[in-house]
């Protein structure tokens, strides 16, 4: 098992999860996201394009909901292979192009950003390394200030990417309530660290696969938790919208495939509650966070765009602990490296 060099008897992943509240506080106090967001108010964009893979792509899903709900601006997800494989630069003149990447080094993300900039988009890099190639390819750079991250399974860089996107939109849209929610978030993240979600990971013990569900602002975190189950526990896991899960995927959900549901207090909450009731009524093992049907410990409702970020923390902690219980190394999942370079 990999151990931090300090001799602290925890994994790097555990230590980095513990650093999440301080990292978020540092990012918000520095204020660069708010400054960039305020600068975007004077620009008119026909649409925005978000570019990222894996955990960074999940942060992009959260950012998409924020941009579309707070600014009414349509958002598209970039497909970097259109540039790198098909050699077809997109028509993005006047658009905002946001690349989200922990390392900022993957050649496909860099190439897509360069093509967007040449094509007339305003490019913004949300990165942990402000000197990375993706940052150098961008007009604007928003460092997420997460600090070094040693575990392959990203945690604090993911939460800080989500926080950075939310702070950007709060300033861009002049959304005071979202700003207040962000101000409270570091303390809520710290409280969320104490929550024990082992009841959920106990359900996963003999499961051949698992599902994670939610809606709206929760969808990015839903997909992120499913990814962490796959890469850290080697457990096939899928993250679906609570609306989508009622369609074709419902046929593969059974008592053998546990479901985790994230529920924030917003207009989509009843849809998540209804799905939890229906699945439980069909004998599916469902653990829910938030709302009247919540079975997992929670800190109570805060801002609905910020709560799904905080829900990542107890999920990360539970997954890290379950990996160790299974004899797996959460710092170095099989076949993976910290920086993945794709074309």
Automatic annotation (TrEMBL):
Coiled coil: none annotated. It is an enzyme of class 3 (hydrolase). Its EC number is 3.5.-.-. Keywords: Aminotransferase, Hydrolase, Repeat, Transferase. Signal peptide: none annotated. GO terms for molecular function: hydrolase activity. PANTHER family: AMINOTRANSFERASE-RELATED (PTHR10937:SF8), GLUCOSAMINE--FRUCTOSE-6-PHOSPHATE AMINOTRANSFERASE, ISOMERIZING (PTHR10937). The keyword Repeat applies. InterPro entries: GlmS/AgaS_SIS, GlmS/FrlB_SIS, SIS_dom, SIS_dom_sf. It comes from the Bacteria. Pfam families: SIS (PF01380). PROSITE patterns: SIS (PS51464). This is SIS domain-containing protein. It comes from Methylorubrum zatmanii. Gene3D superfamilies: Glucose-6-phosphate isomerase like protein, domain 1 (3.40.50.10490). The keyword Repeat applies. Residues 36-178, 200-343 form the SIS domain.
């Amino acid at each position: 098992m990999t151990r931090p060099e300090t001799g602290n008897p925890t994994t790097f992943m555990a230590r980095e999860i513990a650093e999440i509240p301080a990292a978020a506080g540092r990012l918000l106090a520095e204020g660069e996201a708010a400054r960039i967001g305020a600068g975007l108010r004077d620009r008119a964009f026909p649409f925005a394009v978000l570019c990222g893979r894996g955990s960074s792509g999940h942060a992009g899903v959260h950012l998409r909901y924020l941009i579309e709900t707070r600014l009414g601006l349509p958002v598209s997800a970039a497909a970097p292979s259109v540039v790198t494989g098909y050699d077809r630069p997109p028509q993005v003149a006047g658009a905002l192009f946001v690349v989200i990447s922990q390392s900022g080094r993957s050649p496909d993300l860099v190439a897509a950003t360069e093509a967007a900039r040449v094509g007339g988009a305003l490019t913004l890099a949300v990165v942990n390394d402000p000197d990375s190639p993706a940052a150098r390819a961008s007009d604007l750079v928003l460092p997420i200030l997460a600090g070094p991250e040693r575990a392959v399974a990203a945690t604090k860089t993911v939460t800080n990417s989500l926080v950075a996107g939310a702070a950007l939109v709060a300033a861009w849209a002049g959304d005071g309530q979202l700003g207040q929610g962000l101000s409270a978030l570091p303390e809520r993240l710290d409280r969320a660290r104490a929550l024990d979600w082992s009841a959920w990971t106990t359900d996963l013990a003999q499961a051949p696969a698992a599902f994670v569900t939610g809606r709206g602002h929760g969808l990015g975190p839903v997909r992120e938790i499913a990814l962490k189950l796959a890469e850290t526990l080697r457990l096939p896991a899928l993250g679906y919208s609570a609306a989508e899960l009622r369609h074709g995927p419902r046929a593969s959900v059974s008592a053998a495939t546990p479901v985790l549901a994230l529920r924030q207090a917003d207009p989509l909450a009843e849809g998540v509650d209804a799905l939890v009731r229906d699945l439980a009524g069909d004998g599916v093992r469902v653990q829910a966070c938030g709302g009247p049907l919540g079975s997992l410990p929670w800190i109570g409702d805060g801002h609905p765009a910020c709560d799904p970020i905080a829900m990542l923390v107890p999920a990360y902690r539970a997954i890290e602990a379950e990996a160790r219980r299974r004899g797996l190394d959460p710092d170095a999942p099989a076949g993976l490296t910290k920086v993945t370079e794709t074309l």
